[in-house]
Amino acid sequence: MVKSTDLCNEEWSHALIKELVHQEIRDYFIAIGSRSTPLILAAERNPLTRTHIHFDERGLAFAALGFARAKKKPAAIIVTSGTAVANLYPAIVEACMDEVPLLILAADRPFELLQVGSEQAIDQIKMFGSYLKGEWILPAPSSDVPIDFVRSIAAKASHQTLLPRPGPVMINCMYKKPLSLDQPYTPPTTLAPQTTYLPTSQEPSDSSLKLLADLFSQHEKGMIIAGKLDEGDQLEEIFTLSLKLQWPIFADPTSNLRNIGRSSSSIPYFNSILKNTDAKKTLQPTIVLHVGDKYVSTHLQEWIASVPVKAYVHVSSHKTVDPYHQVSHRLECSPSLFAKRILPNLKGMPPSLWLGMWKEHSLRAEEYVNDFFEETEKLQEPILLHLLGNLARSDMHFFFGTSLPIRYADGYFYPRDSAGRVFATRGASGIDGNIAQAIGITKALDVPMICVIGDQTFLHDVNSLAMLTNSSLSFTLVVLNNFGSGIFSFLPISKQKDVFEKCFTAPHSFEVSHFAKAFSIEYAKVETPHEFTEIMKNARTRKSPLILEFFSDVEKNHEYLLSIDTYLSKELKTKSSLRTFYRDLLK
């Protein structure tokens, strides 16, 4: 029986969404549009879905990315045809590079309307090039094609977002008019799920574990670098491994190892040590164990690249990280599972002078950083991140924006107590969609979120504030407003004053308060450490969004950061008898 176009559109769309729900894709981020009407109706009317609406496709995609990043499972994006799809590009790039599962359901014109000048008809096929893990094309719905075809594509595409590596996948859905029925469509209740994918796991082989255990046992001067990790509550296994080996841990803020409590093997303020002591020369490792993905610290990267290590072992669930081409051994495995499985193969090492030396440096660096910041009466950008570390609690989660905030966090965010998770955009490290991502994460976890970004990052994503209007999210947005791009003041180009301010700093006069008022969001300005501390003490219990703005000056901020290193360099290079004793024994 030949069915009408509008009926076929609804049947296919409901079957598509129902199969995706079976594959546990329950959250749909929807941008308003016409050609996507059948998809919107199917997503909104399925009783097992949650829909999130935003008018801006670019921000919407980043909100979905943040949601999927936090949940560690795919979120779906529904957009109409044409440039609406193109607006997803930055988020798709980030999802690809940081391996976040996303499923894009892009409405499209049918084949006969392409390349003939039809309204809103562009070539959407292969639009995102190599940044998609997979791309599927559904022709215009027709009764001539069995509906099981649609359900099979849905199952394959959803599975592809996760395995063998997470990432974005697109289904291009062509629709003819009329797009939908005049009355609500009632899908059949007899349509059973199409496909069930059975779980698999990555297990390190016994031979690999023995080989690495033998390798580790040959080196006293080893270190563990922890990049971005997603293992949650099992991160303690990595601390256990470091203590058994007596190797120090250099933990990136996105590793979340900083947030589960202090370990006797962790090295807080390692950036300050590398910049302001002779440790780069006197405490060089012979082996590096790198667990997880990328890490922020340029000082650490460049130092390790200059050290002639005898082995560099990288353990990550799925991602290859080797910018300086040093990796000698690579194991694709969950870092926490690897730590747990290799522990029985290792002999426990006695307390190490090597680790003791690093700990002494770390304790002294922390002492002097605290002293320096406590003596500063006026709030400064790095102090703000340091205070957040002191105020962090287990029910507070953090998003640090690209550019200076994540670098301040890398240098000075070291929670004293157990704290919530840290998120950041480190795939392509763009300043796009940071507000939207943080909002998506907050929606996914339903927890208090502290988001710290710069003014340029804020201006890039102002539209996403609309998702906070009339919201009950516990969301505190802290904007460091230095009226330009402060990060460029650290680059050599800053010395060329004739072009620097106009072309790189890109100065502006915007104040965040005006945007907060426009979107009906509560606002406050902070000027002192005390003011910031008092407001943040109540951040965990807030039931509505708040925007905090801190004004700073690019040049004065740069001078303040240099003064920190000047002070630390003077204090940390004071030689103690204990340090000399350690160094002589390690020779």
Question: How would you sum up this structure, described in words?
Answer:
With 587 residues, the chain is an alpha/beta fold. The chain has 3 domains: 5-174, Thiamin diphosphate (ThDP)-binding fold, Pyr/PP domains (Rossmann fold, 3-Layer(aba) Sandwich); 206-351, Rossmann fold, CATH 3.40.50.1220; 381-551, Thiamin diphosphate (ThDP)-binding fold, Pyr/PP domains (Rossmann fold, 3-Layer(aba) Sandwich), CATH 3.40.50. The protein is built from 22 helices and 17 strands. The protein has a 6-stranded parallel beta sheet with strand order 2-1-3-4-6-5, with helices on both faces. Strand 5 (134-138), helix 6 (147-160) and strand 6 (168-174) form a beta-alpha-beta unit.
Short structural summary:
With 587 residues, this protein is α/β, with parallel strands linked by helices. The chain has 22 helices and 17 strands. The chain has helices at residues 5-22, 37-45, 57-71, 83-86, 89-97, 147-160, 206-217, 236-245, 270-276, 279-282, 298-306, 335-342, 353-374, 381-391, 404-412, 434-445, 455-460, 497-505, 512-518, 529-537, 554-572, 577-586; strands at residues 27-31, 50-54, 75-79, 102-108, 134-138, 168-174, 222-226, 249-251, 287-291, 311-316, 329-332, 397-400, 422-424, 449-454, 475-481, 522-525, 546-551.
